Amino acid sequence: MKNKGKIGVCFAIVIFIFSTLLMSNLAFAQQDQGQQSVRIIVTDGATGKAAEGVTTLIRSPTGALIQNLGTVPEGGTLVSLAPGQYTVFVQIGIFGFPVTLGSYSFGTNQTTQVKLTVSALFVSALFIPIQYLPLVIYIVVSVVILVIIIVVIRQIRKYWKQSPRLPV
Q1: What is the model's pLDDT at position 27?
Q2: C-alpha angle 162/147/98, rounded to 5°?
């Protein structure tokens, strides 16, 4: 008889734990209700592979940051969003400032996959991957600065050669 009482108590405890877990799962399911899964895929226009070195952001129509996805892996990133309109921005950092390479607006009620292909106009013509865009810009700016310095030095030397010397 004592064993039946212990079995009944154990059974009641198991039922209580099971029902608690079941109710908490239902509460979480209701919390996610209305959320739409959206896959974000960002590819490089020059290589056709996943874009490396870029940051992907999801913003609301008011411009508020909804989610910073960082670098999206090759298969894409799956995000859950409430119903509404959103814009995905793909940015790259140049001289410490974010430069937007592309954007795409979508609504969660109709879109389940957002695929963006990004490339910089002059870089894609040379088939240079987008991850090297900052390096290309740094090199171009460095060469321009070097040319300016050389021109200024030549002008100074020319001025010194042409200027009359005072006797000492």
Answers
A1: 42
A2: 145
